[in-house]
Amino acid sequence: MTELKFQAQKQELKPGITVIQDVTNNNAPLKYAGLKLIQLQKDATYTETLNQIEVCVVALSGHINVVEGEHHFENIGTRDSVFAKRPTDSVYISNDHTYQVTAVTEKAEVVLCYAPSSKQLPTKLISAADNTIEDRGNHSIKRHVHNILPEDNPSANSLLVVEVYTDGGNFSSYPPHRHDHDNLPTESSLEEIYLHKIEPKQGFVFHRVYTDDRSLDETMSVENNDVVVVPKGYHPVGVPDGYNSYYLNVMAGPVRTWKFHNDPDHEWILHRK
Ligand SMILES: O=C(O)C[C@@H](O)[C@H](O)C(=O)CO
Q: What reactions does this protein catalyze (predicted)?
């Protein structure tokens, strides 16, 4: 049984709020990154008090209100499904604050991305328009990226958050790369969490996590709403024909910078014409 994959659950937190994923350093081999996926029915309110952690509240689907102190962000969110392939709105909230998320639409799905933080930063809306958009790769490694909290956005202390779309028949996070050696400026040490979604939702993708010496080498079949955690190692994703893949990545580590190292055995793939 792998300790890297978390199957979707349905845990009622209170009427109108269901927890689908709750990955922390208590149940996963992680020190820095955390993720919660919640589903809310209209008017249901999720409240949380942060301790020494910061959060990025991502309006995954549906519309929500987010309140922290005097900050009110109303009716945020841009899509009914992540597969609309449109960037969405998010809110950054720093450590030691209390905040509320309320569903405005019949249902809403929200990802809460966590990382350690001790320096207060302003609560801030990261609007859909603030996302930077990239198309990466060629041949069968094409993917489409929405950068929600990239390293050049100084709104967070530790958190890096990104959404990645991979069409059926393609690979992403490929050629395989790792970011687990604290060896700046060439490689940074970052844990990573993948929240996977698949369209249509009965589909699956393959996610391998492995190190050079293969002391860690796990290949997982991953279904809709499953989470994979990557405490270390290379971590490519393969998407079967007929299904589209979406994942949201949370990355965090001692230094907020993403410097990765490609597996030298497979780096040639980047240099094909
Ligand atoms: O470009 C991609 O395929 C996405 C990945 O880089 C993903 O965000 C990741 O693995 C980050 O380390």
A: 5-deoxy-D-glucuronate = 5-dehydro-2-deoxy-D-gluconate
